[in-house]
# Entry
Amino acid sequence: MRKPILAGNWKMFKTVSQALSYVEHLEGLLAEIQGVEAADVVICAPATSLYPLHNQLEGSRIKLGAQNVHQAEEGAYTGESSAIMLKDAGANYVIIGHSERRQYFGETDESVNAKTQQALKHGLLPIVCVGEDLDQRNQGVTNTLVESQVRAAFSAVSVEDVTRCVVAYEPIWAIGTGMTATAQDANAVCAHIRTVLSDLYGKAAADQIRIQYGGSVKPDNIAELMSQSDIDGALVGGASLDPGSFSKLVKEAL
Ligand SMILES: O=C(CO)COP(=O)(O)O
# Structure
């Protein structure tokens, strides 16, 4: 059985004080959810809020994630954060290769692979994002594209390490648009991703890897997504920004 993982991706929202008051509120709401310990709940916050959140969340069920990591150990890379720094600041997870980073910051399958290896080396758990845009979906190349993204992302990653990773399938056309893939369509792509992982690492490993869906996930569509065979969680943008809606989403996911 794969443990469900509900991760909020705050993107470039929330100051430190907003982040701290959010998690205080979320903690209280999660405490009222029966069986909440059956899922991993993660907040992927801006780098500026990681350390203050880490201090506030000591002993909390809420885990922290970063939204990006540089592939080098350290060096003259103005504006970047290393895996060592993020881990030290309290991150457990890190989102790698989000479509916004691929689109606006020139990330490639090669950098996604290097970042994945670097995160794993320093004990950060990668949430590796893949997904097609609307043109690619209309051309019918979704599976081919996602397969090549997955193969590239995990190139030279060992079977022990890959089972610590999470894959997030996020169709670009569904991000922030209110358009969601149907649960069946989302599941079909997630199942294809698992087949690719099985081909690379064997069925036993592939069956352990958690695959999230992301793209306009809301409290009212999460239950149907989670009922699918190959969807083990969600990467949530807009609906994670309010503790009330995110806690509701966690509750509906269980
Ligand atoms: O990009 C996303 C999560 O990483 C999805 O964002 P929305 O949930 O706002 O569509």
Remarks:
- The beta strands are 5-9, 40-44, 62-66, 93-96, 125-130, 166-169, 210-214, 233-236.
